[in-house]
Amino acid sequence: MRISVLCALFTLPSLLPALSVEEFRALPDDREAVRSSYGLRRVAVLSSERIEVEVGHSASPAVENPKAWRILSEDDPAYAYERFITPVRATVRKETEVEAPDGCAIPRFERRFVVLDLPAPLQEG
Question: Which pTM does this prediction carry?
Answer without folding.
Answer: 0.68
